[in-house]
Specification:
52% of the residues lie in helices and 8% in strands. The chain is built from 18 helices and ten strands. The structure holds D-arabinohydroxamic acid (HDL) and zinc ion.
Length: 424
């Protein structure tokens, strides 16, 4: 029987002792500022588009959806209530009659705790601002450890467009991303609006329409100084093809992104309005095929693609796809997979298959203060998983130094995003 080769005990690494590791990793993750690359927040100069305060937090559509499982009110009755009355009902239903055990409800308490507020509705209303001042915005972003916020900007939303037309002062910590869901997913419906804006476009994508749509994109990319172009699509997303969406991608959006060297963000798997009575809360999800993503990444090797997918079942396939295409940058644990258990599972899988070459999280915050709990939770998971990975390295005799950890954490929370933006 051949002897089992004697594995010598590895020499102690001149780097970090294992015991000090977890505390140090947590400290580094905590102090490394993040770029939040996908939110629904707006710079303070956008006025009421930037939501904040206790009543907005309680009317967050995740919480609204959960509240119907408790109060069972007719949708129309709920819709006709004032925001404050809805908050009262939601607080009673989800925080008094039941414990706030869900991610979204407990997130409200985590915000209160971080801001040093008593966890009562009246105290939260009193302490949190519902008019976003620059000082308050700075305080909240600093508390969340968020350096930069990327907005979601839709020039075909008349309310938002009216703000842009007033040339709002841009804020150094807020950046734009041009979101094209309406154009891509409902093109015929937006043709009249595009014509009213002076673009000579038709229902069919003839040569003139293609040029006019490129002019529309160029105008808004210039005006917004957008960092990237984005769209979401359902589980029916396909490419290439002859559908309007596929042709818009091929003949309008990709040529503009390539010419401007802008990344294109694909957010795939959002099945919209399965319950229209729930409004923003009425969307669901579906599995995303990797075939269109593979087709885009392989046909456009010079185009950079941010990609996030909505269903848990698509996550592993996306990680493997990212191994095949280095012009694909995975980002975030989006929406229904942004829960502690799934963020842990997904981030561990990504580290195991990609190393520190992805963007682990974005907040998707709709209400300013949400960045506090969403990033607190993200950092907790990232620190724990990184600690495991570094511990294994040390046990193998690899030298892990503090500045190695700082470099890797900066990459995950910041540099992978900005490097992908700038990598022309
Ligand atoms: O399409 C998106 O950007 C999604 O993030 C939706 O806005 C969704 O309603 C959401 O807020 N998810 O967190
Ligand atoms: Zn979003």
């Amino acid at each position: 029987m051949p002897e089992t080769p004697h594995v010598s005990t590895p020499p102690p690494s001149p780097g970090l002792p294992v015991q000090a590791l977890d505390e140090l990793v947590a400290r580094i993750v905590q102090r490394t500022r993040a770029t939040d690359m996908h939110t629904h927040l707006f710079a303070p100069s956008f006025g009421s588009l930037l939501l904040c305060g206790a009543d907005e937090l309680l009317n967050f559509h995740y919480i609204v959806a959960e509240s119907f499982r408790a109060h069972h009110l007719p949708y129309s009755e709920f819709r006709h209530m004032s925001r404050a009355s809805r908050s009262d009902l939601i607080w009673e239903s989800l925080f008094v009659q039941r414990s706030p055990l869900s991610e979204a409800t407990s997130g409200v308490l985590e915000i209160g705790q971080a801001l040093g507020v008593d966890l009562r509705l009246d105290a939260l209303r009193e302490a949190l601002c519902d008019v976003p001042t620059e000082t308050y915005v700075t305080r909240v972003l600093d508390l969340a450890g968020v350096d930069s916020v990327v907005m979601t900007n839709d020039p075909l939303d008349p309310v938002e467009r009216a703000v842009w037309e007033r040339s709002p002062a841009m804020h150094p910590r807020f950046h734009a991303a041009l979101r094209l869901d309406r154009l891509l997913n409902h093109y015929q419906a937006v043709v009249p609006e595009l014509c009213s804006l002076g673009y000579a476009v038709r229902d069919t994508l003839d040569a003139q329409t293609v040029l006019e749509l490129r002019r529309f994109l160029d105008h808004w990319l210039e005006r917004m100084g957008a960092l990237y172009v984005a769209f979401s699509a359902g589980d029916d997303f396909s490419f290439p093809g002859e559908s309007t969406r596929e042709q818009l991608l091929e003949r309008v959006i990709l040529p503009v992104c390539l010419a401007r060297e802008l990344p294109l963000a694909l957010m795939i798997g959002s099945r919209r309005q399965v319950n229209q009575d729930l409004g923003d809360a009425g969307d669901s999800l579906g599995r995303a095929s990797m075939l269109p993503i593979e087709a885009l990444c392989s046909r456009y090797p010079d185009q950079r693609f941010f990609v996030t997918v909505l269903s848990r079942e698509s996550q592993h396939e996306l990680v493997v796809t990212a191994r095949k295409f280095h012009n694909l940058m995975i980002f975030g644990c989006w929406w229904f997979v942004n829960t502690d258990s799934l963020v842990t599972e997904i981030t561990r899988m990504r580290l195991e298959l990609l190393g520190p070459t992805f963007i682990p999280q974005h907040s998707d915050a709709r209400v300013l203060e949400q960045v506090i709990y969403k990033w607190q939770r993200a950092r907790h998971v990232i620190a724990r998983l990184l600690g495991d990975r570094y511990r294994r390295l040390i046990e193998m005799g690899w030298t892990v130094r503090e500045d190695d950890i700082e470099r890797d954490v900066r990459a995950l929370l910041n540099d992978n995003f900005w490097g992908f933006i700038r990598r022309a």
